Amino acid sequence: MASNKGSIGRFRRDSTLVTKASGIMAEVDTLRALLSDPVGSIAAAHSDSVLSLELARTRSLLDSLITDARKHKGRYINF
């Protein structure tokens, strides 16, 4: 099981979760930047503090997920 060869080894090396979560976090960061611009394409939602708080919360949760996935790779593999 500790070997990098075979099915389990491939799963342990797989960084798909971290890659996908990082991509989503980048999209959340883009939304937060657009939301903070009062002249931007989503300027009407600029004053929506609930949306801002939820985006910040989502980013924090994704950051925690990425950190944990890197630290405990085997935790996210189900057989």
Give a short summary of the structure.
Helix 2 packs antiparallel against helix 3 (49-71).
Give an account of the 3D structure:
The protein has 79 residues and is an all-alpha fold. The protein has one domain. Helices cover 66% and strands 0% of the residues. It contains 3 helices and no strands. The chain has helices spanning 6-13, 16-36, 49-71. Helix 2 (16-36) runs antiparallel to helix 3. The longest helix has 23 residues, at 49-71. The protein is elongated, with a radius of gyration of 17 Å. The two termini are 13 Å apart. The mean pLDDT is 77.
Give the strand content.
Answer: under 5%
Helix content: 55-70%
Shape category: elongated
How many strands, what sense, and barrel or not for the largest sheet?
none
What's the total helix number? 3
Question: Which terms summarize this structure?
Answer:
79 residues, mainly alpha, 3 helices
Helices and strands in order:
Blueprint: H1 6-13, H2 16-36, H3 49-71
Helix pairs in contact: 2-3
